[in-house]
Amino acid sequence: MTSAALTESAQQTVRQQVLVLYLASSALDARVVGWSTYDGTGATSPTTGDSDVPPYATGLDALKDGWRLFQAAQLLPPFPGHEYDVSFLKHEFFFEKLVPVDVPVDVTA
User: Fold this and answer.
1) 33-87, pLDDT tens digit by residue?
2) Pseudo-torsion of CA 53, 55, 44, 68, nearest 10°?
3) Half-sphere exposure of 50 (CA within 13 A, CB side)
């Protein structure tokens, strides 16, 4: 056993992964039109535009794969006369997964 192995051990904790899906409508079974992912585990470093294919076809598919929905966009009606204005993607859903990771712990401290 090396001296590093004697002075450090691993402790398991959880880190959050976040998935943001923009859907075609406010229904969770609507198709995904945009997405972002963030990995709090540090195992991956996704960037904008790194895939032409969404990670899921619908928000419901993400739920079925174990993602937990924690925020959905408010449904706000458009201001009269602005029903066809182009703006931000308004059907935004935030999902999370809590993933176990091993973190080194210095046992000499």
Assistant:
1) 999 999 998 888 877 667 889 999 999 999 999 999 988 777 677 778 877 776 6
2) 160
3) 9
In contact, 40 and 52? CB cutoff 8 Å: no
Structure tokens at 58: 């619908």
Residues 41, 17 contacting (CB under 8 angstroms):
yes
Residue 73: which of 84, 88, 86, 55 has the closest Cα? 88
Q: Tokens 């993933």 appear where?
A: 99
What b/e sequence results for 39-51 when a residue is b if at least 16 CB atoms lie within 10 Å of its CB, and e otherwise? beeeeeeeeeeee
Position 7 scores a pLDDT of: 47
Q: Provide the 10 A C-beta neighbour count for residue 99.
A: 14
